[in-house]
Write a structure and sequence with these properties.
heterodimer; A: 350 residues; alpha+beta; five-stranded antiparallel β-sheet; B: 744 residues; mainly alpha; two-stranded antiparallel sheet; 2% strand
Chain lengths: 350, 744
């Protein structure tokens, strides 16, 4: 398969989907995905990310708003008429067809002659590295192999946009990282515009050029992974992506006062009219560190989780969730400990 | 939309060609001979044979003119494109719907004697003569209009823009309305008319509020006579439902919760009610307990006891129904018992409940909706049963037999038949409604995809022995009854002369090799061939309409979907006798005049058996993940292609199930078609009933045996064909097997 030269630019303008049951599933969202990008739709279940994906695919038509693909309005086109392919969560391989028949299905439906369809399918099978499995039934393949068939089947029509609906959720934990890397590698090699849905933040951070975080049918925030992780704008994103502790504070110029703690925020961190601090669990360290704000806290829960220790503490900042990397000595419940953090890692969120 | 232009124009051209053929080529009216005899080709201009255009021009049937006019409108919209795309879609939808509507309306308005209603004579010019029933031309034109309408409706954006879905839906809805809903309404209407055809509530009340229907005395409840026919029917049905539910539960527990040897035989029994004509059990009981039956003959011979007639009446009919319908309850309840999650029983045991306590407080309550379902199915089976009451009823009459005698008997009282049908229908629909509620509510059956690893708790000894105590005699008697039905055909005169003979078989099934080659001289051949032909035409039609309806219900979204589902399942609740009477009322006069033809029998078969195809299809579709359809759609296949290449191959077991069921049920049904057969279209069951009524048991029994053996061969053949077929890895529980049939 040659590198695609199609314009895979995808745009949503004020798109809503209302099933008529309470709040709309997707409420007036707009975004733009550049050609060749991999963008992840991230959010908790019920946030509208899957509905958004299905609207890109054409499996759902929006209640209002427009969707354009490569500059053309495709809002009312059905799934069969859009140059978009979807890799399903369940893979949705046709169980009564062999791998080859599955991959050939798209070209055949588009009216390709059998030899032509086979040739296209061969290329796709080679792309995903499954040559030699053509005559198997899907049920005779492992989960990872089934997924590759699903990807080959989606790639064979050289779609402008490739969609992934939680592609790793049916794989066991050890396979996930590998498949994740394969998907990313393939996507970059083909430079194919991709939209990826997941509720797993690590997965989202690992594969994406950009992430769109959704919450209750709207876009909470979007941006590249490190921006969203280190400099989130919204409290929801800070909480969802990093489990950050949200603490109310009074801000005067670059002076921050929260509880009895007062410290100076670096200029780069300051945003006007904000009064909420996001403190990631991993920015804390035990004991007093010179030049860093320090406070005492009472340990309520503590657990050793391998990569470090997790604690819940009561402090002047309120209840905090703390992660101490590479700590194997866990404080006792009921202990009072000194905690400090670096102001450079603190963000102001809305 | 632009990508579909070529497919779009093909579809439209096909629609217009169908319309043109219907109007210009093919005879508009129904012919005396079959259309396939092609006698009409030679005299295509004749009054009876002419297509619609010639009918309108030459024979002054001016009311036909709007039909070609509408077709020209459609062609104009397609070829001259006078409107924007959206307006054209709307116009096309309107033309199509108007076409179908007018086609039917003109048929009802101008009947055999001219205008059907007075106001038409005032508004329109007089017509000379009327018109005959609609024929092949009308059918083609109707189909063309359906395509035109669906093209427009889909282009307006309904059904996700899918013409296949739109066309299927319009076609199936029209068919069900025409062949289920309309006839039933026609019967209800007939009940409200007096002898001269005027609407008269008092004559309805006279027929309805009669002692013959409603009389009720304490004495009559236990087999005595004097009860009204409504009470007879109700009482019998309640007893039968309770009995079959209890027996079925015991058998189901035995089959699924014990290790009793030979329990596999029980499963075989579930096939019996499907392959047996409904009156076979009745015949077997007569041969055993009848006046000249084995028991009475023996008692008379050994002790000189006068033969008793107790079997003719409520006890006999009840006994026959218990034997005939318990396998159905068993089939329902096996699923229910297996659906109870063993984990819950283990939980109960771990909380120190004894086996009996577990059964009474956990298992039984969990099965309650299933038991209610089995009870109501038994009830519906019993009130719909015609074969057993007609064979064994004697003076004990029920609604279904009374309807029959009102139509066929010396009285020939259509009004009475209509009123009784109304009553029977009301009872059946009420039970059906209750059944839908019992099964439709969130059921307790706990089958999930997740592994349920618990072991069922062994049955309490008391229940176990009750089950065995019930099952063994039941089994023995079943075998004896069926055995007798098989052996009886080889004896000279049952009860008098047990000499072995082949004379009954010779009489029914002899063949001669004469000067004209092979001659089917046996008396039964004609009806057997008729049966086979009708059944083999009806079965694939049942499967097609059934699976298509199931697809529409399970896989598409449209307004009124619940209503559509109800409509397709409705004929399940309509007792065969009522449907038969309804067909006579509805299809004896133009516009659809098909009584006495094989067509009406085939149509009746299709719509009687439709619910089973629908249910089987829905069950099978619910096992196929929707993402498969969506995958196919995103790969560029439209609704029709997805249906053809993805769903159909996976629905094979359901299709085969619907085929087998449609075929076998068509061969065994009596109640609906006993009104519809004519001398030329007599079928096996009606032939046998005729013989039984004449007391000619020998031939009847021989014929029954042949039918049963024939059907077992058919079933085994199809099961073998399915069984050796590779169908992927899906769990393919035959959906048709779990669906349950109404009797009669």
């Amino acid at each position: 398969m040659e590198k695609t030269t199609k314009k895979g630019t995808l745009e949503f303008h004020g798109v809503s989907k209302d099933y008529g049951t309470g709040d709309p599933a997707v409420n007036n969202i707009s975004f733009r995905i550049e050609d060749g990008e991999l963008v992840t739709l991230l959010g908790p279940s019920g946030c509208g990310k899957t509905t958004t994906l299905r609207m890109i695919a054409g499996l759902e038509l929006p209640t209002s708003g427009t969707i354009s693909l490569g500059g053309k309005d495709v809002t009312t086109r059905s799934a069969a008429q859009r140059n978009v392919s979807l890799v399903f969560q369940s893979y949705a391989l046709f169980p009564h067809m062999t791998v080859m028949e599955n991959v050939c299905y798209g070209p055949k439906m588009q009216g390709a002659k059998p030899p032509e369809a086979m040739a296209k399918a061969d290329v796709a099978m080679k792309t995903v590295g499954l040559t030699g499995y053509e005559s198997r039934l899907p049920s005779e393949l492992s989960g990872g192999q089934q997924q590759r068939v699903a990807i080959a089947r989606a790639l064979v029509l050289e779609p402008a946009v490739l969609l992934f609906d939680e592609p790793l959720s049916n794989l066991d934990a050890r396979l996930r990282r590998r498949v994740r890397e394969e998907i990313r590698e393939l996507q970059q090699r083909l430079a194919i515009t991709s939209v990826y849905v997941t509720h797993d933040r690590e997965e989202a951070l690992a594969v994406s050029d950009n992430i769109i975080v959704m919450d209750k049918g709207i876009i909470a925030e979007s941006g590249n992974p490190s921006k969203l992780f280190f400099q989130p704008d919204s409290a929801f994103v800070a909480d969802f992506l990093t489990e950050a502790n949200l603490v109310k504070a009074e801000i005067d110029g670059n002076q921050v006062r929260a509880g009895e703690i007062q410290f100076t925020l670096p200029a780069a961190q300051i945003v006007a009219n904000r009064s909420m601090l996001a403190l990631r669990p991993d920015i804390f360290s035990l004991g007093q560190i010179p030049g860093q704000p320090t406070f005492s806290a009472k340990v309520k829960k503590a657990a050793f989780v391998g990569r470090g220790a997790e604690m819940e503490v009561d402090s002047a900042l309120g209840e905090l969730f703390i992660f101490l990397p590479r700590h194997n000595v866990i404080p006792q419940i009921g202990d009072t400990v000194q905690l400090s953090f670096s102001p450079e890692s603190v963000c102001l969120v809305r | 939309m632009s990508t579909l232009t070529s497919g779009s124009s093909n579809y439209r051209i096909i629609a217009l060609l169908l319309c043109a053929a219907g109007l210009l080529l093919v005879p508009w009216y129904a012919l005396q001979d079959s259309i396939w005899a092609f006698k009409w080709v030679k005299s295509v201009g004749g009054k009876e044979f002419a297509p619609a255009i010639i009918q309108a021009i030459t024979y002054h049937r001016g009311w036909l003119w709007p039909l070609p006019a509408l077709v020209i409108c459609a062609a104009g919209i397609y070829f001259f494109k006078p409107f924007t795309a959206h307006a054209a879609a709307k116009a096309s939808a309107i033309v199509g719907v108007a076409g179908v509507t007018y086609l039917l309306a003109q048929g009802f308005m101008v009947t055999g004697q001219g205008y059907a209603f007075e106001w038409l004579k005032v508004l329109f010019p007089a017509v000379s003569g009327g018109q005959l029933g609609m024929g092949a031309g009308a059918l083609l034109l109707a189909f063309g209009f359906v395509l035109i309408a669906s093209d427009g409706i889909a282009a307006m954006g309904y059904f996700r823009g899918d013409r296949f879905v739109a066309a299927s839906l319009i076609a199936v809805v029209s068919l069900v309305l025409l062949f289920v809903f309309f006839p039933v309404l026609r019967v209800l209407w007939a009940g409200l008319l007096d002898a001269s055809g005027n609407l008269s509530f008092s004559s309805f009340w006279d027929r309805f509020a009669t002692q013959k229907i409603w009389a009720l005395t304490p004495a009559c409840l236990w087999g005595g006579s004097g009860c009204g026919v409504a009470w007879n029917t109700l009482w019998l049905a309640l007893l039968c439902a309770a009995g079959t539910t209890f027996l079925g539960l015991m058998l189901a527990l035995l089959a699924t919760r014990t290790n009793v040897r030979g329990k596999k035989i029980l499963r075989l029994l579930t096939v019996l009610p499907i392959v047996t004509p409904p009156f076979v059990v009745g015949l077997g009981l007569i041969m055993l307990f009848g006046r000249a039956g084995m028991i009475n003959s023996f008692l008379e011979w050994a002790f000189g006891i006068e033969p008793s007639r107790w079997i003719y009446g409520l006890p006999g009919v009840l006994l026959a129904q218990l034997f005939a319908f318990t396998p159905v309850a068993f089939l329902v309840l096996i699923g229910v018992v297996e659906g109870v999650s063993p984990t819950l029983e283990e939980a109960s045991q771990s909380l120190q409940a004894s086996r009996m306590q577990t059964f009474l407080t956990v298992t039984l309550p969990l099965m309650a909706p299933g038991l209610a379902n089995a009870f109501l199915v038994g009830f519906i089976e019993s009130i719909a049963d015609f074969g057993n009451p007609v064979v064994l009823g004697g003076n004990f009459s029920v609604l279904s037999t009374d309807i029959y005698f009102a139509i066929v008997g010396a009285q020939l009282d259509q009004g009475k038949a209509a009123v009784l049908s109304m009553l029977l229908l009301a009872m059946a629909l009420f039970a059906f409604w209750l059944q839908q509620r019992a099964t439709g509510r969130k059921s307790f059956v706990t089958v999930t995809g997740k592994g349920d690893t618990g072991l069922p708790v062994p049955l309490d000894t008391r229940i176990r022995f009750t089950a065995i105590g019930v099952a063994v005699p039941w089994l023995v008697l079943t075998v004896v009854i069926y055995g007798m039905a098989l052996v009886g055909g080889f004896t000279k005169v049952w009860g008098r002369d047990y000499t072995l003979t082949l004379e009954h078989y010779v009489k029914a099934f002899s063949v001669d090799w004469g000067q004209f080659g092979l001659q089917w001289t046996g008396a039964a051949w004609d009806s057997l061939f008729n049966t086979l032909i009708f059944a083999s035409v009806a079965a694939p039609l049942t499967a097609i309409v059934g699976i298509l309806s199931a697809y529409l219900i399970a896989r598409t979204r449209f307004k009124g979907q619940r209503g559509f589902e109800f409509l397709t399942l409705l004929s399940f609740a309509i007792p065969g006798t009522v449907l038969g009477v309804a067909y006579i009322f509805a299809f004896n006069v133009p516009p659809i005049e098909i009584t006495g033809t094989g067509l009406i029998i085939i149509i009746c078969f299709v719509f009687r058996n439709l619910p089973v195809g629908v249910r089987g299809g829905i069950a099978a579709l619910s096992q196929i993940d929707k993402s498969l359809d969506e995958a196919s759609t995103t790969l560029g296949a439209n609704g029709a292609k997805t249906f053809r290449y993805v769903l159909l191959p996976m629905l094979k077991p359901a299709i085969v199930g619907a085929l087998v069921y449609g075929f076998v049920r068509s061969m065994t049904t009596v109640s609906a078609i006993i009104f519809l057969v004519s001398g030329e279209t007599e079928v096996a069951t009606t032939y046998i009933i005729g013989r039984v009524v004449n007391g000619d048991y020998g031939v009847s029994i021989a014929y029954c045996s042949v039918l049963i053996v024939l059907m077992i061969i058919v079933i085994l053949f199809i099961q073998w064909a399915v069984g050796t077929r590779k169908l992927g890895r899906r769990v393919g529980a035959s959906p048709a097997g779990t669906a349950v049939a109404a009797a009669g």
